Amino acid sequence: MIVQRFGQKAHGPAVGTMERNWSAGEVAFSVFASRSSTIKWMVQPDGASIYVNQAWCDFTGLSREETLGAGWVQNVHPDDRSSVELHYAEALRLQGPFDLEYRLLRADGSFVWVLSSGQPYFGEHGQHVAYTGAVRTFETLRLRLAHPISVTAVKLLTRREAEILEWIAKGNTSDEIAMMLGTSPRTVETHCKSAAVKLGAINRVQAVVQAIRQGEIPF
Prior knowledge:
- The chain has helices at 24-34, 54-60, 64-67, 78-94, 159-169, 174-181, 185-199, 204-213; strands spanning 2-6, 39-43, 49-52, 98-105, 111-122, 128-138.
- The chain has two domains: 2-146, Beta-Lactamase; 159-213, Arc Repressor Mutant, subunit A.
- 36% of the residues are buried.
- It has eight helices and six strands; from the N terminus they run E-H-E-E-H-H-H-E-E-E-H-H-H-H.
């Protein structure tokens, strides 16, 4: 299992979610995620899973109820499990974005290398209320080994600019990003344009591509 990146601290859910008080941003994420074909997840600050979308259930063969809490760990490869749990806990402690690579058991009984990317979500008063993220597979090659990201590399983008480009890369619109971050679409566009200028891009698509190539955001 390879930890690709740890960042510094950043400043009516669907059926099958853990019972708790949900913020507007969390509800918006769960509504968006329920429509996505990409695996999406949400955990509490203590790491307990509180939401996964249908894509997770289809991929792993686990129900939402089986996944909640620490249930998702049962599908992590036994040889990766302790390392995943260790670095996952460290990411939660730092309250920053993270990328983890490990082998995940899918419904057909085979293990597949995946990249799980997480972003902290903070409430309107700055409190850390959740982590949201996505899981993507690397079916034939562990591509990130060829382009490792240095944790000490100088970053061009601010944390918010990188965060917004990551959400764009995952297929989110400015309105959706604004809702999840608790800001306005206009502010999202401003950050996007600023990032594009820094990266020498002429539009948001090029900005995302350049950000990935330069290690500003995960692949």
